[in-house]
Specification:
Rossmann fold, six-stranded mixed sheet
Length: 160
């Protein structure tokens, strides 16, 4: 299996989750941070995993733009999607549904909600202020769900 994990990260949580996922996948895995390379060559990969995180209720613009620009190619590949967010249950599922286009969600062989984190050491003053006001969180907290990451990887490995 030749896999590309395409993601965007704001404060490092999505990148950490992408790395944890890559460690558990079989075959060759390449990580692509859309901040560093916004137009990766998708042709060498048979599996594409797209991930992002929620900020102010929306997935990063880079991920949204990547999905919109590459919809036709992504529909031809083995596709999987993941989202990092602090919400759980129905709210997290709604955020996932709003983050990715329906045609890609339907096409994905698996999808995952990997939890999230607020890392104050990586936030500027404005992000800290907003996080404290909106989320009511006053210190760094991680809700990364490693079990969900492992289950996502296991599902892809089983299908591979």
């Amino acid at each position: 299996m030749n896999t590309l994990i395409v993601y965007s990260t704001t404060h490092g949580t999505t990148e950490k989750c992408a790395q944890l996922l890559a460690e558990q996948l079989q075959g060759d895995v390449t990580l692509n941070n859309l901040k560093k390379q916004s137009h990766p060559d998708l042709s060498p990969y048979n599996t594409i995993i797209v991930g992002g995180s929620i900020h102010a209720g929306q997935i990063q613009k880079r991920v949204k733009k990547f999905c919109e620009s590459n919809t036709a190619t992504l529909k031809e590949k083995r596709l999987a999607l993941f989202l990092c967010c602090m919400e759980e249950g129905e709210t997290a599922q709604t955020q996932f549904d709003n983050a990715f286009p329906e045609e890609l969600r339907r096409r994905a062989v698996t999808s995952g909600l990997f939890g999230g984190a607020f890392d104050f050491s990586k936030m500027n003053v404005i992000y800290k202020f907003i996080t404290k006001k909106v989320a009511g969180v006053t210190e760094s907290i991680s809700k990364i769900n490693e079990n969900n990451i492992a289950a996502f990887a296991a599902e892809l490995n089983k299908q591979g």
